[in-house]
Amino acid sequence: QKNIRIAPSILSADFAALGQEVRAITEAGADYVHVDVMDGHFVPNITIGPDVVKALRPHSERTFDVHLMISPVDPYIEGFAKAGADIITVHPEAGPHVHRTLQLIKSFGKKAGVSINPGTPLAPVKPLMEEVDLILVMSVNPGFGGQAFIPESLRKLESLRRMIDDSGRDIDLEVDGGINRETAPQAIAAGADVLVAGSATFKGGPEAYAENIRALRGHA
Ligand code: DX5
Ligand code: ZN
Question: Residue 146 phi/psi, 5° resolution?
Fold first, then answer.
């Protein structure tokens, strides 16, 4: 029995009440707080920056899992680290020096993650196995919440699960996009141990969060 962690994406929260929303998912049993950072350049949407992470930090003691969909990324790592991120995840597609970026993240004492888009093969991850603490498989094209899960992502999760187990390292395998009650068990079976869920966590409003999170975990 694996230890499955649920990471609600606050992209689907009420942006006018973010502090309250972060407290609500924390009370509802979230393990990580997943923060989607978008720049209108690497992805076709704009969300939030380090000041918002800093403002939210006092609202939860859970792991802040910051997913950077921005390019360039290096100039912003320090800001997110100092704002209180615990894990900072970057995309190799966003620039030529992902290894340097991972080293930079670790130089601030933070966990470093690498994320790969649906159209990216696993090859770029292989040379990074010694450097990463988390691998994030995008199961939708990044930019928006509420999109449909891309089934091919399951094959990627299976391959990465083998690579992680072979490495003997303690690396989170996270999946992001289109996770709901139907796809969550498939992703878990394929080897994921951290599930990002935006719309599936926040649907129904605060009274439903605890039940939504329990269901994603596979508990009836
Ligand atoms: C997409 C983001 C996801 C998104 C997931 O670019 O990285 O974290 O918020 O939303 P759902 O769970 O609704 O697919
Ligand atoms: Zn994300």
Answer: 75, 15
